[in-house]
Amino acid sequence: MAVVVDQQANQNSPIAVDVAWVFDEERLKELLGTSAKEWFVKKDQLKRDYPDSPGFEVWEWEWIPGQKIPTQHLPLRANAIAGVVFARYHTSGEHRARIRANHDFALQLRKDGFAVGHE
After folding, report:
1. What is the layout of strands, in order, in the sheet containing 15-22?
2. Angle at 116 between CA 20 and CA 95, to 5 degrees
3. Beta bridge partners of 96
4. Model-wide pTM > 0.85
């Protein structure tokens, strides 16, 4: 994962970013219907509700505007069917994007939202 954090990202505030690798269709459907705001509130409860297998695996970061981020190498279990990126922005919106499993991608964190590109 290549990451660029713009100088004014998240209205010049730190931004939390989670990548959830998803292992079943039901959980993927649920997460794709979840806004980033909801995700950051309920992800710990989801893990507690399904202690043996929540159906996803999460990688978590927090970056500041303008921070230089080295390429992130995310371990991925072979059975992941997709990924979902959530970014905690101050602005309203879903701030969520689906990513393909087993593919490199680029994440650009901007002032009011983010973009994902697949390489």
Report:
1. 56-63, 15-22, 82-87, 96-99
2. 65
3. 86
4. yes
Beta strands 2-5; 105-109: pairing state:
parallel
Burial 91-117 (b: 16+ CB within 10 A, else e): eeebbbbebeeeeebebebbbebbebe
Structure tokens belonging to residue 107 = 């994440």
Q: What is the per-residue pLDDT across 11-36, written as a single tens digit (0 to 9) for each?
A: 999 999 999 999 999 999 999 999 99
Dump pLDDT digits (tens) for 85-115.
999 999 999 999 999 988 899 999 999 999 9
- Residue range 2-73+80-118 forms a domain whose CATH class is mainly beta
Query: Are the C-beta atoms of 9 and 111 separated by less than 8 Å?
Result: yes
Burial class (CB in 10 A: 0-12, 13-18, 19+), 26: exposed
Q: H or E segment at 96?
A: strand 96-99
d(CA 49, CA 44): 9
